[in-house]
Specification:
171 residues
Length: 171
């Protein structure tokens, strides 16, 4: 039986009381960035340490994610990145979305840090809120973007770089 009233007050509808879907993914190892530009994360694994997905979980193929159910979703990309070989004007990430089964993607949310010298760390944390209305056509993927060489950390024992999917409400 669903809880609909609390202290004789009606509760809002459409929101999940308790998380019904939560999944965390990461690159399958550290990444050495050798140039500049936007590069999609493609070799990904479900986060392996002290974690088990909640609900069905996301489906992933070559860095493209399919959603298990319609609803309002919060997507998070966090990147642990370090400038190498000099200062960096920007180093960060992009959450990209498609509503046409992955035929084309749009940059939906971006976040960046700058590295004032070689060895400087950045930790961009990017959130996107999306309404997935059709699981057969809606897709998500993630990318990193730098203006020169950098390193991205993704060791399996720490949640450094991660893609997080959380269903927060019904459509």
């Amino acid at each position: 039986m669903a809880l609909t009233r609390l202290n004789n007050q009606a509760l809002p509808t459409g929101f999940a009381f308790g998380t019904t879907e939560l999944d965390v993914w990461q690159p399958n190892g550290d990444i050495t960035v050798t140039g500049s530009g936007v590069v999609d994360f493609t070799s990904l694994i479900r986060y392996p340490s002290l974690w088990e997905k909640v609900g069905t979980g996301m489906t992933e193929s070559s860095g493209v994610f399919t959603f298990p159910s319609t609803g309002k979703w919060k997507l998070t990309l966090q990147i642990s990145i370090q400038a190498s070989g000099g200062s960096r004007n920007y180093m960060g990430g992009i959450i990209r979305l498609s509503s046409n089964s992955g035929s084309s993607f749009t940059n939906y949310a971006q976040g960046y840090n700058s590295g004032f010298n070689s060895g400087a760390y950045g930790y961009p944390h990017i959130n996107a809120y999306v309404d997935v209305t059709d699981v057969s056509t809606f897709r998500a993927k993630f990318a990193y973007n730098t203006d020169a060489e950098a390193g991205i950390f993704a060791s399996s024992g720490e949640m450094n770089t991660a893609m997080i999917f959380e269903k927060i409400a019904s459509t």
